[in-house]
Amino acid sequence: MKNKKETIAKGIISLLFSQVLIKIVGLAYKLYLTNKEGFGDKGNAIYSSGFQIYALLLTFSSTGVPNAIAKLVSERVAIGDNKGAHRIFKIAFFTFAFFGLIGTILLFVGAETIATKWLEIPEAKYCLVMLSPSIFFVSITSVLRGYFNGRQNLSVMARSQTIEQICKTIFTILFVEIIANISNNNTVLMAGIANFATTIATGASFIYIYEYYRSRRKEIAQDISQSVNYIPTRVRKTLKKILKESIPISITALMSSFNKNIDLFTIVRILKKYMDENEAKIQYGMLSGKIDTLCLLPISLNVPFVTGMVPTIAKSIARNDIEQLEKKINFFLKVTILIAFPSTVGLIIFAKPILILLFPNASNGDMLLKINSISVFFALISQTVNGILQGIGKNKIPMFAFFVGMIFKFFTNIVLIKYFGINGAAIGNIVCNFVVFTIVFYELRKYIRIKINLKELIFKPILATFVMGISSIYLFFALNRIFLYKMATILTISIAIAIYLILICFLKLVKVPKQ
């Protein structure tokens, strides 16, 4: 085949650069919206409320699908059954196209009821209507991404995601500017049209990846013709297998998405008993629009590793290569820890400077960011362990863990928001992610007796993070005497990242395992 398969490192690096670019570009439109006159935290509340419901429905048709398809495809490819891998793809494509269409119709028809009855934010109706076609596009795009991931071609996934985010950012800014001028900065209309940009972007992403698939049909056909170990199966049996893999992963993602909807359903309802309803919406918008955006940045950096991890672990299982399996698990855990420690510490130390830098017109919420950033560490480790469990076929464990975490989150919100305001929701995030982490890590150790090198996995990353944290504090105070506050923040964060990367190299912490 002319298009050689990528190595783990190449594919992950491609996705990593894509994620960094996506977050930078995505942050641009988020900053634009938050600082836009007439939008701000209130606009974020309306925008986010609609988007969270969209994300909730999306999990039924697409979230988790790429990993499930990638796992099944990689298992077939590992034993030379390219024909079976392509058959899985075709059946999944038509199945999730149907699910996506149903999701689109449900969201479009039920937009007003959801906004007025469920959310008690009637303004979110237009956001839901504008977002509804995205469910169909993302459903079928997810299957294509999973297929190429299973064939060790992560670059096409990276490019499709990048195209989606660039289009989303460009059209968000363009559409909002047009509506702002026409409607005299009407917040509701701006929030609605900003969500319509997501629909345009998901459509563009689907067109790209489908055209890529069409351009590779001859190469795929050549692989199929050379297939070995193919065992014909009925469509019903193959579909059952696809659903058996994808449903637990999608439900796990559903639980994760519903955690955000717990905030959506509880924060405004509880806070408006103790303050003006408009102020309650602003408080929710501060958490959903700014704090969650910042805390999701490090989690998104871990996504490429989890994405590349699931099929490569499934491949080791298919080949019964236990030695390589252990090496891969240790590698992916180490990478996640190397992201988790500095991200959490950095957000705590520079909470206020970051908010002032990125949201000059709405920079409040530093204590909320400090509290919420603690949950980032547990969320990152859980994310990787979930991927490992999915790779070895234990899909139901993450689902159960998130369900338990969701229950803890709900009751923590109910109790603590009353006494600690919006900070109570952030504490709820910590409790939820800690519970999930505890369950999945315990189950991982039970099913796989891996040897954990504490020196490599814990002590060295803590040392590197400690040196970075202390040096960055002194550096910020020194630079703040020379440069303006915002410039000192940018320079300090940049130098801190460089120091951390140098320490990683010096301590020889990263060694990529074989495929």
Q: What are the SSEs and their pairings?
A:
Blueprint: H1 8-35, H2 40-61, H3 65-78, H4 82-109, H5 111-119, H6 125-150, H7 154-183, H8 187-215, H9 217-225, H10 235-271, H11 277-318, H12 322-349, H13 351-358, H14 366-391, H15 396-420, H16 422-447, H17 454-480, H18 485-506
Helix pairs in contact: 1-7, 1-11, 2-4, 2-6, 2-8, 2-10, 2-11, 3-4, 3-6, 3-10, 3-11, 4-6, 4-9, 4-10, 5-6, 6-8, 7-8, 10-11, 10-15, 10-16, 11-12, 11-14, 12-14, 12-17, 13-18, 14-16, 15-16, 17-18
Report how far the terminal alpha carbons are from each other: 19 Å
Low-confidence regions: none
Order of helices and strands: HHHHHHHHHHHHHHHHHH
Beta-sheet strand percentage?
under 5%
Number of contiguous helices: 18
Helix content: over 70%
Estimated structural class: mainly alpha
The beta-strand count equals 0
Write down the overall mean pLDDT: 85
Name the shape in a single word.
Answer: globular
Biggest sheet overview: none
Name the assembly state.
single chain
Rg from Cα: 23 Å
What count of structural domains? 2
